[in-house]
Structure formats: structure tokens, C-alpha cells
Amino acid sequence: MAGSAVVVARSSLLSIILFFFSILPAAVAGTAATQTDAAIDAAYAHLVNITGDQEYWAERAEVARAYNRLAYVSNPAAAVNRFNHAVRKATASRRSLAHQLGRGPCKATNPIDACWRCHDDWATNRKRLAKCGMGFGHKATGGLAGRIYVVTDPRDDAKDLAAPRKGTLRHAVVQDRPLWITFARDMVIELTQELIVTSDKTIDGRGAQVHLTGAQVTLQNVRNVIIHNLRIHDAAARDGGVIRDSGHHVGARGASDGDGISVSGSSDVWIDHVSMHGCADGLVDVVDGSTAVTISNGHFTRHDHVMLFGASDGAAKDRIMQVTVAFNHFGKGLVQRMPRCRWGFFHVVNNDYTHWLMYAIGGSQNPTIISQGNRFRAVDDAKFKEVTNRVYTPYSEYKDWVWKSQDDMFLNGAFFTQSGGQSGRRFDQSDLIQAKSGQYVESLTKYAGALKCRAGKRC
């Protein structure tokens, strides 16, 4: 999850508390203005200055909540149907994807990819990608309205965190204007602290092999962000420090968990064609009332807690959370949380689960989970055949949760325990358009993960 704004250092806060207790008897006695009163005023003024970052982030959070409410879809079943209809239409015939555009075969095997990968001019018309999103995050256009920013410098030195040097990724992502960010060449960027991304950004790794390591990518209280074609791995927890988080603000940050990507209090986010493994916490966490998010075409391997959607059973703000997980490959060495959901509405569609060591899809706090057209291959261990896990919840409570499986394919004894329909809204064939069947998943996810795209050739 995102690092928090540091308000008061422990030692400073303790000294202030002890100071107030030391002068409390005199204050209660109603003494007249004294040197002690002046000291109290000075201490309070110091406290106000210290909490400036807290006020700044509170204001950003309030603005973000307004945008999140606007991004929320009141009829999520209709959004699911639009997705399924588009997939079935695009894949209705062999020629629909194979020869959709231009001369010769197109390597795209799902409609998101077919929107741009069949064009050999993708490098000179990168922004076509902004029209290709699907699912709840389909409105994300990232830096469509901005200029191209080319990252030329892979450095991320600790001394530059408050004033990032031009040409670096950190300098690009904090600018207070829309930008479409690309990379001049292959590079490994070892982040020294969390990378805080502002609104209206596309980070587009096509045309280069770009690795982000060392710390997490943070989207906190922002909107309209696309993250595309990156390799994100080995993010570590960091203690925080003074970090620039926008063009007009530098502030103290608390510790970051070491997620691969942390989406907190944000909306209209699309994460596409990422390859991720081996981070300190989750690979992708979506928390704190975030909504309108799509995670597509990703390849995830070698990790325990893969995706967390909703950080706490007590975070009722996550009722507005709506996330699409589509065309991803959940590969070797994964344990659990693909995803683990709370409160919101989650469409898990046409993904390939090649194995899990505990469970694949889990949740608590009555999330709605619609699983359609996935392929689930269980491990050989008989204890871990079940796809689903209602985390620490008895049947008497979860029996009314809407967890539906439609057109999924189950291999090696895998099974999905459905629930819902005893009370409240029922989602079934009368509500939902049929997804593309799980038997097509191998094709739909064939090119999941970061792509090796080169200018002048179809990607």
C-alpha cells in the first residue's frame, strides 16, 4: 500500500505531549498569560507547521473521493455485459483478430491488443492505446492530452528525491500536467523510494525493455493513469523520507510496504501488459476507496500475496470499488490472492490460472465476484483444489454473497464454490451476457506480460 505522509516524528510528538502535561496544572488553575502560555503558543504553531503535509494529503483525498464517486458505475452488471459483448464480437470468427487490420496476420489474440498491436505504426501513434481500454477502467486515457516525455536517464539517486533531475522517470511522473512517458532505450531503474505518480499520466514501456525495481509505484489520490508494458519486480519496503509528490509539493513520507503497484484512493486506472514478481508485499494492491480499475494482459509469477482489493474489513469506503481482471496469466510459484477482495464488485474474466498453492480467488466483507470464462488448473495436492476462499467467514454469513462462476474451465480437480441468490440481487444468465468460454483462454492470454515491441514492426 502507499506510504503515508509523516506528520510528527515520534520523539517530537512525545516531547510535545510531555510538555503539555507539564504545564497542564498551571493551565487548569487559570493562571494569567505567562511565559508558559507563550511557549504553548509556540509549540502549537510548530505543530501546525509539522502537520502541513497531513492537511495537504487530506485535501487531495477529498478531491479524489469526489472523482471516485463520479467514476463509480451504478449498474456494474451492464459494464460486465459490455465487456463480454465486445470480446465475443471481436472473436466471433478466426479472421476477426487474425487479419483485422493491414496486411498479413496480426499477433493480437484479444480485443484490447487488436485495438493497437495490428498497426506497424504504433511507435509513431502511441496514443492510439488510450482508446483501447476495456472493463471498469476503460475511461483511463492517461497522458493523451499531453506531450511525449522521453526518459533518458535511469538514475534515481536518493539526493534527488526532493528535486528529481530532468530526464528521469521520477521527474516525469510528478509534473502537474498530462504526459505520455516513454523510454529512450532499455533500462533498469532501481527506485530508492516509492515512485509517486500524479494524475493524467501514461507510463509506456513499449519499444524498450524497462525494469522497475527497488521500491513500489504509488498511485495515491489520483485519477486517469495508464501503466503499460513494464517489468516490475523486487520492490522492497522503504522507510520513507522527504519526497517530491507533485510539481508544487515536497513532503515527508512514511514507510512504503513494497508493493509492486499500490493504487490508493484513485480512479480511472488501467494496468496493462506488466510482468511482475517477487515484491515485498503485494504485486498489485487496490485500496482506500479506489474504483474504475482494469488490470489486463499481465503475467504474474513467484509471489505469495498477488492482488489485494480492499485493505481492511473495516474500510466501508471500498463499497464503491469496481475492478476488472482480464486476460492475465497467473503463472508459476503463486500462492494466493488472485485476487483477494473486500466490499466491492469484481469481474474476473478470461484469465489463465496455471496453479496456486493455497487458493486463487478469495474475499471477505460480502464482495460481489463474477468469474467468467477463466481456466483454473489446480495443483496436485488434494488440499488445494478449491479456487475460492471466504476468508475467516462461516457459511451462515457467506451463503448470501454473490460469487458466480460462468463458463469457467476446471482442470486437475479444481472447483469453484458458488454462493448468493438466497436473498438480495441474483446474477445469472438473465443478468449477464455469456463470456468467452474458458476453453479459449490459452489463446486470449497468449501474449500476457511485457511485450518485446520494436519500432516499425507490429508489436
TrEMBL record:
Residues 1-29 form the signal peptide. Pathway: Glycan metabolism; pectin degradation; 2-dehydro-3-deoxy-D-gluconate from pectin: step 2/5. SUPFAM superfamilies: Pectin lyase-like. It catalyses: Eliminative cleavage of (1->4)-alpha-D-galacturonan to give oligosaccharides with 4-deoxy-alpha-D-galact-4-enuronosyl groups at their non-reducing ends. Belongs to the polysaccharide lyase 1 family. Keywords: Calcium, Glycoprotein, Lyase, Metal-binding, Signal. This is Pectate lyase. Its EC number is 4.2.2.2. Residues 186-382 form the Pectate lyase domain. InterPro entries: AmbAllergen, Pec_lyase, Pec_lyase_N, Pectin_lyas_fold, Pectin_lyase_fold/virulence, PEL. Its cofactor is Ca(2+). Binds 1 Ca(2+) ion. Required for its activity. One of its GO terms (molecular function) is metal ion binding.
